[in-house]
Amino acid sequence: MTPLAPRQRGELAEACQRDAGAPGKRLLPLRGGRISQGWGENGAYYARWGLRGHNGEDWVNGPADRPITPPPSPPVNWGGIPEAWDDEVFWVYATGAGVLRVGSSDGYGLYAYVMGERWHWLFAHLAAIWVMDKGVAVPGEVIACMGYSGITVPAGIAGRHLHYGVRPAEMDRGNGYGGYVDPSGVRAA
After folding, report:
1. Element containing residue 129 per DSSP (H, E)
2. Bridge-partner residues for 93, per DSSP?
3. Residue among 29, 184, 31 at smallest CA distance from 96
């Protein structure tokens, strides 16, 4: 694969930002992917965590996403997953603007959480993150690489996916989904 020149990468980023911010358009975290587990599914499984069902969408890869070469600098946070740089790199894109929080938990593994004025977005089970904690996310910007950190079913590379969750800034944590809402209803302002 021929790397894109800096000017081409910049033009691609600008196009992604325009596309992500189009009024009424669904904000997508993964290009060329598909939803493998939807909002509210598998209630019996998620009851162990006090949820009524799945509190987001799980996205799996479509064809490998290769319009951008890996950034020249190392990732800011690394999930310890050796396959993050295998033949297939699946980029995760910011779906809104806001302050970033980066962390790790047993369940979600390595994650990025974007806190905007109206919405908060969760990107979890990541392999690596290229954004700084307390930095600013821009819609359409590559922020991470999809992985399988945390609890994934199945475990390991076969469970590689992106957990994508959306909460309103003024959330109802008692809604049975930890304050998360169905991401399919969230549109660009």
Report:
1. strand 119-129
2. 142
3. 29
Tell me if 126 sits within 8 A of 89, measured CB to CB: no
Average pLDDT over residues 90-108: 88
Tokens of 123: 């990107």
Tens-digit pLDDT profile for residues 120-133: 999 999 988 878 88
Quote the CA–CA distance of 176 and 189 in Å, as a whole number: 26
Show me where the domains of the chain are located: 6-185
Q: Is the peptide bond before 154 cis (omega within 30 degrees of 0)?
A: yes
- Enter the pTM of the model: 0.80
Residue 180 DSSP one-character state: -
Alpha-carbon gap, residue 113 to 180, rounded angstroms: 13
What token pair was written down for 65?
A: 């996403």
Q: Please say if the pLDDT value at position 38 is more than 90.
A: yes
C-alpha span between 46 and 68 (Å, rounded): 36
| Cβ–Cβ < 8 Å for 109, 77 | no
Cα separation, 160 vs 125, in Å, equals 8
Rounded Cα gap, residues 14 and 44, in angstroms: 42
Q: What is the CATH number of domain 6-185?
A: 2.70.70.10
